[in-house]
TrEMBL record:
Domain HD-GYP: 53-248
Gene3D superfamilies membership: Hypothetical protein af1432
Organism: Deinococcus seoulensis
Bilayer-spanning residue ranges: none
Region: Disordered, residue numbers: 1-23
Pfam families: HD_5 (PF13487)
CDD domains per the UniProt record, alphabetical: HDc
Highest taxon listed in the record's lineage: Bacteria
InterPro entries linked to this entry: Cyclic_di-GMP/3'3'-cGAMP_PDE (IPR052020), HD/PDEase_dom (IPR003607), HD_GYP_dom (IPR037522)
Protein name: HD-GYP domain-containing protein
């Protein structure tokens, strides 16, 4: 007798049809084939939906990045440099491939809240007033709210919201301190601040390597997680920058605004 296939069996869900005269073993085998076929169909559908979701997420991220770049060219370039440095630091810390993907996404989106800040403030040629600086300080919360409606971007939230917290608890927006700061924020804080120090700004020239190393040493254990500073330096992230002569002074505001 030819072994039955799943097609020989009636679908038990429709309550119709009769079971062929099969042995229990043949019936069991045919049922397994039917379940395997149905599982394969469901899995293919899931993969298709997952691919569509991933494509949609990439489109959202690209739209955010394009909007940010159009709003503030400096921030667009800053974002790319911070991502590269943060990835080096995370690799030095031994983060997993999945965590590295989170770093990649979080770094790209960390300043997205700045799209809500006026060009007048972002491109102001002089120092910011206290009121203007207060508006800039809102960008982590605004950015966190912007991505909150996208479940696929959930892993970026801690990077966006907490990259301006300080180890001593004097940062923003939540004034968290020490290990209460999510590790994503502690990681990104160093790369973000270093890039701000090493970039020309409207109100000052870029700092030199010696000044940056001095700032990092002074900020380790106060502004920054000491372990993150150590990992950043060990990663060679500073090699990503073309450094300037030592002829500048630090900005009066905390680094990495």
């Amino acid at each position: 007798m030819t072994p039955p296939t799943a097609a020989d069996l009636p679908d038990p869900r429709d309550g119709t049809g009769s079971t062929p005269d099969l042995s229990p073993e043949q019936l069991y085998t045919a049922q397994l084939e039917r379940y395997a076929a149905e599982f394969g169909t469901l899995f293919l559908r899931y993969k298709t939906q997952a691919a569509e979701l991933e494509a949609a997420t990439r489109a959202v991220v690209n739209a955010f990045v394009i909007a940010l770049g159009a709003h503030d060219p400096y921030t667009r370039e800053h974002t790319q440099r911070v991502q590269n440095a943060a990835l080096r630091t995370a690799r030095t810390l031994g983060w997993s491939p999945e965590q590295l993907e989170d770093v990649r996404l979080g770094a790209v989106l960390h300043d997205i809240g700045k799209t809500s800040i006026s060009d007048t403030i972002l491109r102001k040629p002089g120092r910011l007033s206290d009121e203007e600086y207060g508006q800039v300080r809102r960008h982590p919360v605004i950015g966190s709210h912007m991505i909150a409606g996208f479940p696929a971007l959930a892993s970026a939230r801690a990077f966006v919201l907490h990259h301006h917290e300080r180890w001593d608890g004097r940062g923003y927006p939540d004034r968290l301190g020490g290990l209460d700061i999510p590790v994503q924020g502690r990681l990104l804080a160093v790369s973000d601040a270093v890039d701000a120090m090493l970039a020309d700004r409207p109100y000052r020239a870029a700092l030199s390597l010696n000044q940056v190393l001095t700032e990092l040493k002074a900020g380790s254990g106060t502004q920054f997680d000491p372990d993150m500073v150590e990992a950043y330096l060990a990663s060679g992230a500073l090699d990503l920058y073309l450094l300037r002569p030592d002829d500048t002074t630090p900005d009066e505001h905390p680094t990495g605004t």
